[in-house]
Amino acid sequence: MNTSEHLPDTTANLGKPRMPALFIGHGSPTNAIEAGEFSRAWAEWGVSLRKPKAILCVSAHWQTEGVRLTAMDQPTTIHDFYGFSQALFDMGYPAPGDPALALRIIQTMRQVPIQADTDWGLDHGSWSILCHMFPAADIPVLQLSLDRNQSPEQHYQLGKALRWLRDEDVLIIGSGNIVHNLQAVIWRDTAHTWAVRFAERVKQLIAGQDHRGLVRYREISDAALAIPTDEHFLPLLYILGLQDEGEKVQFLTDKTTLGAISMLSIQVG
Question: Which of 11, 164, 260, 267 ranks highest by number of CB atoms within 10 Å?
């Protein structure tokens, strides 16, 4: 995927620090309303970042045929779950959208067809973490879908093609979990040995900037148990694609809990 000829001119931003990129292990939707260790960490993280002009989220919870990008003025808050308390369904995150930015992204990514979407909104992969990081909900938020037809390599390359947004103060967030097996959940603060082992191996590969090894995540031992489906791991590949060679990575909320859910989060840059 060669997109360099279509990249915007960012010379006006020379000398200005690039916006970091984040992968966040979002875990249970209840983290949106619980004052727990993860929600506190997200709140502190949000305070530590300079305020972005806009946020682009790649959530595990929006899979489509082809790539879609929200492009409405006011995205709705989607409650894409069931069986939780009414307080969670009463939650809203009234952040504005940014149709103009969405159009620029669509026009820039000419070799990656992206369709403007005005039906989806923000699912809990986005708003359950943003409500703690940026509680004022005053930053425009866009959400990018995961194309079911793309390979892990294609998802990674799409992340690379979005690098220019970091130079325009757009905060890109991948929201998922590097270990996510709901069939193996244990409802207490513990973890299966295989879940911890897989998470540690992924962390080693991230620290070593071994992107090839992470794109081939299905070859990692315990992958079949740790991520029986791909959608929660794929958002990590976008953030890896946004990383420049040698760019630092910080680890946050490095914990595997509920048996088979890794809450590992990272910051690139």
Answer: 260
Q: How far apart are CA 240 and CA 205, in angstroms?
A: 11
* CB of 143 closer than 8 Å to CB of 124: no
Q: Are the C-beta atoms of 70 and 117 separated by less than 8 Å? A: yes
Query: What's the rounded Cα separation, in Å, for the pair 8 and 16?
Result: 16
pTM over 0.85: yes
Which of 209, 159, 203 lies closest to 178 in space, CA to CA? 203
Residue 2 has pLDDT above 80, yes or no: no
Can you tell me the distance from the alpha carbon of 54 to that of 70, in angstroms, rounded to the nearest whole number? 13
Helix (H) or strand (E) holding 22: strand 21-25
Give the three-state DSSP class for 254: coil
> 241 Cβ partners below 8 Å, 6+ apart?
155, 156, 157, 158, 159, 160, 161, 162, 163, 211
User: Taking a C-beta distance cutoff of 8 angstroms, is the pair 55, 141 a contact?
Assistant: yes
Q: 128: closest CA among 16, 228, 33, 239? A: 33
Q: How far lies 164's CA from each of 54, 109, 161, 242, 250, in Å? A: 13, 11, 7, 9, 21
pLDDT in tens, 162-216: 999 999 999 999 999 999 999 999 999 999 999 999 999 999 999 999 999 999 9
Residue type, 81: F
Q: Which domains does the chain have, with CATH numbers?
A: 4-8+22-268 (3.40.830.10)
Phi-psi region of 253 (alpha: psi -120 to 50; beta: other; left: phi over 0): left
The DSSP string of 85-117 is -HHHHT--------HHHHHHHHHH-TTS-EEEE
Angle at 267 (CA atoms; ends 264, 269), nearest 5 degrees: 160
Residues 264, 244, 43, 168, CA torsion sign: negative
